[in-house]
Design a protein that fits this description.
Layout lengths: L26 E2 L2 E2 L8 H27 L4 H25 L3 H29 L10 H8 L1 H8 L13 H23 L6 H21 L4 H29 L10 H15 L14 H30 L3 H38 L9 H7 L13 E9 L2 H8 L1 H18 L5 E6 L2 E8 L2 H16 L2 E3 L2 E3 L3 E8 L5 H17 L4 E4 L2 H22 L4 E9 L4 E13 L3 E3 L1 H11 L2 H23 L4 E5 L2 H4 L4 H12 L6 E5 L1 H4 L3 H14 L2 E7 L6 H6 L4 E4 L1 H4 L6 H17 L2 E5 L4 H10 L3 E3 L9 H17 L1
Parallel strand pairs: 8-9, 11-13, 13-14, 14-15, 15-16, 16-17, 17-18
Antiparallel strand pairs: 1-2, 3-5, 3-8, 4-5, 6-7, 10-11, 10-18, 11-12
Helix pairs in contact: 1-2, 1-9, 2-3, 2-9, 3-4, 3-5, 5-6, 5-7, 6-7, 6-10, 6-11, 7-8, 7-10, 8-9, 10-11, 13-14, 14-15, 17-18, 19-21
Protein name: Diguanylate cyclase/phosphodiesterase
Pfam family, one: GGDEF
Keywords: Membrane, Transmembrane, Transmembrane helix
């Protein structure tokens, strides 16, 4: 720029701070990288050379103006060279940018410096060749003015760091103010000449560019954009100050070739340095800024928008005196845009508040309401209880075995499973029902229903929805759920209802999962009672205070005791004798069955080994093993070790398993059974015929013994059909080479029938009830003495 004229440098996307950084974020393979890719060595060399030349040119320019007697020629040359260097740096940066939007930004900045360079050359032609005529708009004047347009396009968000990123209405209206100003400025020069002096027009234009950049900076969405437009704002501010000072000095008589030229070259040098620096900003969201920084950004946005409106209206008022129609149109446009911005801003604020509230009350993964929304809305269901029979029903839904899915298949599969579950629960519910996710794999459905029967039907609908196979990442998953149901009315507290539903859900899991359980006080009391028993059972196990009883197994043919079955007994200090039917399921559910089984096995091995040695017999020890114990890979090794420590041979140990064990993984079951056979242990199939009996078990698995359940022995003397059924089992066992034991023999006539059918081994109260260790020892002593007497 020269005397009486002022222009402005369109800043490159420079990133600022104390040292602004100017390198755009690049993408590799279409994905945003968090670390800036390094410039190639060739690009780095080019940029370094160009920045070095710019700094050197500025040093030469300053030295020329300070120490050379006739500095005009060198000064003008440096002022042509510097914009050319800035233009070249923009082109290099454009070439290195991987995204089209970033290339577009650098292209616009390069175009701005093309205007600058051509205007500079035309100015020199006017200075040395064609004297400039006053009161005419020369081509360089037009170019100095048009120089702002590409910069304005950059600050208006016409290019974004994220392809496809659309600016909101407020941002568009704000930048509309800037373009309106540019239109008014052109009008003041071409349509209403001499309305504004060029000096004033340029200064106003510089101010507008700064305000527009600040406006864009305040809406930055990433740290990269924040730095980019921050640097651009720093540059434009420096140029605006330099232009203002330069104009003031020119007004005082300083012309070309004086120190005033420093104020035109220095901003371009600063631009070159900023554009040549690397960026290290990551694509972090501005939302991670501290609250005070976000408040400052909002303040900057409002101030800059108001400033643009004032500048536009002021310029329109100036034009109005020379061109009333154009002035009125500009004035109305300025006020209209600002008013529209205010309205849109308020609407956006309302929408943002709604979105914020939705974010607070919605589960981000499934889109369902969260616990906060549930608490807020479930109270409204009470108002729908218009008839006495109407109740508010809460259904607490918990996926069975979800943790195993998460652990084995990963959290990604688990998340998609939760999303699909949420969709199914919504589809299985009515429009007026409330479906929320409380956290993890826990959901709650609130509804108004007419009585418990309807609640059970609705719960079954939800269970059916979950039972349908899930297709997730190419896998088909079969899931079930446990549901706790509670009914309430207007007198019930929401948190209390939720706790009751949770308790009912827990009881559904205790009962075997894949079912719904309706809350009732008696049931919960039983659950609490079981929980107390669980705690006491754990204490008894820790104190090794569980007793073991032994029931003889009798050989009808040999007329002697051949083995004993070890049975756990719990004699509670306060509650008395607790039935195995009560505490064994509790031990199973609480994970105490392993410790319980180990105590029974250890004591049984010790006692039987002692009896065998004392009485010169070879009794075998039969011990029940649950499905959970059988799934333990270290079970058989532990039993073998215990037997060895007690001096009992492994061949004298019989492991009693139920048919539920055989329903486990066939390969795992067969492997464990073969391992038992390898140790020499026997396998007895207990309660044969009461479960999922399959003859293939007897053919394919190494089972040594079949125990006929007592339910077939009861009334054996009264029901000929039972006799034939037992005969069939005995024949089957004998044919397959399996020993058969009849359980629950309590009458002489039952024993006679069994003996007549060829059953060799029996067990039951007729022979003996389960005995404590001392009583069993006495019985063996009496039997031994009787045999010796015979």
């Amino acid at each position: 720029m020269r005397a009486g004229e002022e222009g402005f440098v369109g800043g490159s996307p420079g990133m600022g701070g104390a040292a602004a950084r100017m390198l755009l974020t690049l993408r590799a393979g279409g994905a945003v990288k968090r670390q800036r890719r390094l410039l190639s060595r060739r690009e780095l060399t080019w940029v370094s050379v160009l920045v070095g030349l710019a700094v050197l040119a500025q040093v030469v320019h300053t030295f020329d103006l300070l120490f050379v007697p006739r500095p005009l020629w060198i000064s003008n040359g440096m002022q042509v060279l510097l914009p050319v260097l800035a233009l070249t740096i923009c082109l290099v940066r454009r070439g290195e940018s991987g995204e089209e939007v970033r290339r577009s930004l650098w292209t616009k900045l390069a175009a701005a410096f093309v205007f600058w360079t051509v205007a500079e050359l035309l100015y020199l032609a006017e200075l040395y060749v064609i004297p400039k005529t006053a009161n005419l708009n020369w081509p360089d004047d037009v170019l100095w003015l048009l120089f702002a347009l590409p910069i304005l396009m950059v600050t208006s968000g016409a290019g974004s760091f994220r392809k496809g990123d659309a600016r909101n209405w407020v941002s568009g209206l704000d930048h509309g103010q800037a373009f309106l100003f540019f239109f008014i400025l052109l009008s003041s020069v071409f349509f209403a000449p001499h309305t504004l002096p060029f000096t004033t027009a340029y200064n106003v234009q510089n101010l507008t560019l700064v305000l527009s950049c600040v406006l864009r900076l305040s809406s930055a969405e990433t740290m990269t954009e924040l730095g980019f437009y921050g640097g651009l704002g720093v540059y434009l501010l420096v140029y605006a100050v330099c232009a203002g000072v330069g104009n003031a000095l020119q007004a005082r008589g300083m012309g070309p070739g004086s120190m005033v030229d420093i104020f035109w070259s220095l901003p371009i040098t600063i631009f070159c340095v900023l554009a040549g620096m690397r960026l290290s900003g990551a694509e972090r969201s501005v939302r991670r800024l501290r609250p005070w920084a976000r408040s400052v950004a909002r303040l900057m946005q409002g101030v800059s928008a108001l400033g643009l409106a004032i500048v536009s209206v002021g310029a329109a008022a100036a034009v109005m005196g020379r061109h009333p129609v154009l002035g009125y149109m500009s004035l109305v446009g300025g006020f209209g845009l600002f008013a529209l911005r205010t309205v849109v801003r308020e609407l956006q604020s309302f929408k943002a508040n709604d979105q914020l509230r939705d974010a607070v009350l919605r589960d981000h993964l499934t889109g369902l309401g969260n616990r906060a929304l549930f608490r807020e809305h479930v109270g409204s269901f009470v108002t729908k209880l218009v008839r006495p029979e109407m109740k508010v029903a809460l259904m607490f839904v918990d996926l069975d075995r979800f943790k195993a899915v998460n652990d084995e298949l990963g959290h990604g599969v688990g998340d998609r499973l939760l999303i699909e579950t949420a969709g199914r629960l919504e589809r299985a519910s009515r429009k007026e029902d409330l479906v929320c996710r409380l956290g993890g794999d826990e959901f709650v459905v609130a509804m108004v229903i007419a009585g418990e029967a309807m609640a059970r039907n609705r719960a079954e609908d939800l269970l059916d929805a979950i039972r349908e196979p899930f297709a997730v990442d190419g896998r088909v998953l079969k899931m079930t759920a446990s549901i706790g149901v509670v009914l309430g009315d207007a007198t019930d507290d929401v948190e209390s209802l939720l706790r009751k539903a949770d308790g009912a859900m827990y009881s559904a899991k205790k009962l075997g999962k894949d079912q719904a359980q309706v809350f009732d006080v008696a049931f919960i009391e039983r659950m609490n009672q079981n929980w107390m028993l669980e705690q006491e059972l754990q204490r008894y196990l820790e104190e090794d205070a569980i007793q073991v009883a032994f029931q003889p197994i009798y050989s009808v043919t040999a007329k002697r005791i051949v083995g004993v079955e070890a049975l756990a007994r719990w004699s509670h200090a306060v509650r008395g004798n607790i039935s195995p039917g009560v505490f064994i399921p509790i031990a199973e559910e609480a994970g105490l069955i392993g410790a319980l089984g180990a105590q029974v096995m250890r004591r049984g091995c010790r006692e039987v080994a002692a009896w065998n040695e004392a009485w010169g017999v070879s009794l075998f020890l039969s011990v029940n093993v649950s499905a959970k114990q059988f799934a333990d890979a270290g079970l058989l090794a532990a039993i073998h070790s215990m037997a060895g420590e007690c001096g009992l041979g492994a061949e004298l140990i019989h492991l009693e398993i139920t048919e539920s064990v055989l329903l486990m993984d066939d390969v795992a079951v067969e492997r464990t059974l073969m391992e038992a056979r390898g140790y020499g242990m026997g396998i007895s199939l207990d309660d044969f015929g009461t479960g999922y009996s399959s003859l293939s078990y007897l053919l394919n698995l190494p089972v040594d013994e079949i125990k006929i359940d007592r339910s077939f022995i009861n009334d054996l003397h009264l029901d000929p059909r039972r006799v034939e059924l037992v005969r069939a089992v005995l024949t089957l066992g004998q044919t397959l080479g399996k020993r058969v034991v009849a359980e629950g023999v309590e009458r002489e006539d039952q024993l006679e029938i069994l003996h007549g059918l060829g059953c060799e081994f029996v067990q039951g109260y007729l022979i003996s009830r389960p005995l404590e260790s001392e009583a069993m020892n006495d019985l063996l002593g009496m039997v031994g003495k009787a045999r010796r007497d015979c």
